[in-house]
Amino acid sequence: MVQPPAVVRVRGEASADHVPDRATLAVHVRESSPDSRVAALARASEVAADLRAALDGADGVRRVVLSRVSVHERWSWDPGAGTNQRAGWEATVGGTVEADAGAVPDLAETVAAAGAGIAGVSWELDDPAAARRAVRRAAVDAAREAATDLADAVGRPLGPLRELAAPGLSSAVTGGPEAMAVMARGSAGGGPALDLDPQDVTVRAVVEATYALEG
């Protein structure tokens, strides 16, 4: 009976932290009126216009988009009546501000001074593709190092590469692929406090490799 060729299957992982180049701020304006939908929207629109005027041309600002508008009726609980009672109208204008990462603290003050708020900040790279390429290569190097160590452990020379794949795509593995992660630590959703200091962007990659064993 012919024995299948001996192989070693390994996983290589790598990560790298990068100082962010830019940030995207989720901003919003909320205004209310006790009795008029139109008045609530007019107030929110006025504050949004002031915000845009303050941001246009500000140092480090790359793009301002204020395009999400909503108006809804407000309700409050009346314990005496045991029911919800109408409490007026609330209008919201929301959008994003893209800016240089280092400009965020000053822009946060500008947003607050205009009467608006910041819901979250995401930190990003101008060239994430270059960062992904570098970390992929590092993951491949890590896989080969692991394969070499395993081959040495059994006293066999490491042979040629038989297969290289993203996680879950190897012919020897079942299951769906895993995505490469590009993650900014400290971005929105990480906790109750909003950190406006630039946070490193962590790029991670994982590969699966199969090498032949010689000898």
Mean residue pLDDT: 89
CATH class of the largest domain: Alpha Beta
Tally of contiguous helical segments: 3
Series of secondary-structure elements, N-terminal to C-terminal: EEHEEHEHEEE
Q: End-to-end span in angstroms?
A: 19 Å
Instruction: Please name the fourth-level CATH homologous superfamily of the largest domain.
Output: Protein of unknown function (DUF541), domain 2
Dominant shape:
elongated
Which structural class is indicated by helix and strand composition? alpha+beta
Radius of gyration: 27 Å
Stretches where pLDDT is under 50 for at least 5 consecutive residues are: 174-181, 185-192
Q: Can you name the CATH architecture of the largest domain?
A: 2-Layer Sandwich
- List the domain count as a whole number: 2
CATH domain topology of the largest domain:
Alpha-Beta Plaits
Helix content: 25-40%
Main β-sheet description: 4 strands, antiparallel
The proportion of residues in beta strands is 35-45%
Number of DSSP E strands: 8
Pfam family, one: SIMPL
Write the layout of secondary structure elements.
Elements: E1 7-18, E2 22-33, H1 37-55, E3 61-78, E4 83-100, H2 104-113, E5 117-124, H3 128-153, E6 158-165, E7 181-184, E8 201-213
Antiparallel strand pairs: 1-8, 2-4, 2-5, 3-4, 6-8, 7-8
